[in-house]
Amino acid sequence: MIERLFPLIQLCDTNFPSGSFSHSFGMETYIQEGEVHDAASLKAFLKVYISKSLTYTDGLGCRLAYEFVSSHRAEGIWDLDELLYAACSARESREASKRIGQQMAKLCSNLYPSEELLAYLKKIQGKQCYGHPAIVFALVCTELNLTVEMAIYACLYAAVSSLIQNAVRGIPLGQTTGQSLLLWSHEVIQTAVAFIKALPEDELGRTLPGLEIAQMRHENLHVRLFMS
C-alpha cells in the first residue's frame, strides 16, 4: 500500500510541474476587490469553493472517470472530457483546466504509464480531447490500484493546496498561515468526498454564478499575478 501512495504524494505536491501555480480560478478577482484579504476571508472562500464548485466539477468528474475506466468504458471518458470543458463558462478558467490537464497527462504518461492514460494523451494530442486534471487523477489511481475515494481525495487536495499557495502569494499571507489553512481544509475535503460518492451523474458541472462571474471578470483586471 505504501509504495502505491508515494506516486500519489508526488502528484499532489505543489512542486509538481502541472502549471497550477499560474492559476487562481477567479480568486484573484476577489483578492483585488478586497473580498478575500486575510486568513478568515480566504477560509470562507475556500469552504464555498470546495463545497459548491470543486465538488460538482473536479470531484464528481474524477469519480465518474474512475468508474468509466474500472468498467472498461473508455468512450465515457472521452465524453466526460468534453462535458467538463463545456461546463466551465469562463474562458480563462476553462483554458486553465485544459492546460493543467494536458501537462499532467503528458507527465504522468511517462511517470505512471497505463494503456488508458496513453490513450487519453493520444486523444489530447490528436485534438479529440481537451485534457482535464480530474480525469488524469482517476486514470493514475486506477493504475495504482487505489480506491475511488483516494482518487477524489487526491484530486481535491491538489486543487486546494495549489489555490492556498497562490493565495499566500496573492494576498499575501505567511507560510505558516497557509499551512494552517491547508490542515483546516482536510476535514472540508473529507466531507466533500463523502458527498461526491452519492452524487448523481447529472449534477456534473454545477457551480456558483458569482464565482463564474468573478472568473470571467478576471481577464479585465488591470494588474494580474495569475493567468486565471
From TrEMBL:
Which molecular-function annotations from GO does this UniProt entry contain? nickel cation binding
Matching InterPro entries: UreF, UreF_sf
Coarse class of the protein's main subcellular location:
cytoplasm
Q: Which residues form a coiled coil?
A: none
Protein's cellular compartments = Cytoplasm
GO CC annotation terms, alphabetical: cytoplasm
**UniProt KW keywords:** Chaperone, Cytoplasm, Nickel insertion
Function, as annotated, reads: Required for maturation of urease via the functional incorporation of the urease nickel metallocenter.
Q: How does it assemble?
A: UreD, UreF and UreG form a complex that acts as a GTP-hydrolysis-dependent molecular chaperone, activating the urease apoprotein by helping to assemble the nickel containing metallocenter of UreC. The UreE protein probably delivers the nickel.
As for family, the record states:
Belongs to the UreF family.
Q: What is the name listed in the Swiss-Prot or TrEMBL entry for this protein?
A: Urease accessory protein UreF
Q: Which organism is it from?
A: Peribacillus frigoritolerans
